[in-house]
Structure formats: C-alpha cells, structure tokens
Amino acid sequence: MASFPFPKDYGFTLLVAASTGFLITWQGHLVGSARKSANVPYPNAYASRDEADKYPLAKKFNCLQRAHSNTIENLTYVLIALMVSGLEYPKLSAAFGATWVVGRVAYTLGYASGSPNKRQYGAFGHIGDVGLLLTFTWIAIKATLASF
Q1: CA 55/CA 125 separation, integer angstroms
Q2: Could you give the CA distance from residue 36 to residue 6 in angstroms, rounded to a whole number?
Q3: Residue 5: which region, alpha, beta or left (left: phi > 0; alpha: psi -120 to 50)?
C-alpha cells in the first residue's frame, strides 16, 4: 500500500479539517430542532416572511438555517485552502482554520438569538478564511513562478 508523506505537524491541519464536520453536524442539529419548534414542514427551506414576522420561533429557524447554509457555502474553499496551505504551513493553516471554525460557532450562536445583526459576533472568523485564502494564493504564486 502506498502512503503519502505528510509534512511534520500536518496532523493539526487534519484535526481542524475534521472539526468542520462536527461544526456542520452541530448546526444541522440546531436547524432540525428549530424546524420542529417552529412547525416548518419539509420540504420548505425557510418559514415565510409573514410567519417569521409573526412568530419568533419561525424567525429563529430562518436565522439558524441561514447560518448553516452560509457555512456550507464557504466550506469548500475553506477546506481546499486549509488542506493545500497545510502542506507547506501546517501550524499557520491550522490556526487560521481553527479561527474560522470558532468564528462560525460565534456566528451561529449570534444568529440563533433570532436577531440577525448578532451574527456579527463571529466576524473575527474572517481572519481565518482570509488568512487561508492569502496563504493558499501565496503557495499558488510560488508554484507558478517556480515553473518558469
């Protein structure tokens, strides 16, 4: 069986990548519980605007659904940037990735209040995703320039 020689400390990168699975599972559980509390039937992705305006539980469900969806929307590029950046800068990438994950937790908890503006509690998480994007871009530039 062939093995891939991961760099020293790449385990930190892998642990952060694994934590994203726990993050979206936790968010999904929150969404499912809020859906049940708000009586929003499947296949409706959200409560209607009228329902959300009238019923705080419906608004809370919409907020949690949006937090979960937004995390999934960003997950692909964050994971790719994390895994590739971690090959050269495993601890830095793990730190950026962990910052993004903790930021997503704060974002979700703020949004879960039913007050959409409180999602800003997780804004610090952008240090993580922007840091990963810049690190990934730097590695791509170096790799491209090395081919000349």
Answers
A1: 30
A2: 44
A3: beta
Q: Tokens 């495993």 correspond to what residue?
A: 90
Could you read off the pLDDT of 90-146 as tens digits, one per residue? Answer: 999 999 999 999 999 999 999 999 888 999 999 999 999 999 999 999 999 999 999
Q: How far apart are alpha carbons 12 and 92 in whole angstroms? A: 9
Mean pLDDT computed over every residue of the chain: 95
As given in the structure block, the two tokens for residue 107 are 């974002």
Residue among 76, 52, 83, 71 at smallest CA distance from 122: 71
H/E stretch holding 87 reads helix 56-88
* Integer Cα distance of 117 and 135 in angstroms: 30
pTM score, two decimals? 0.92
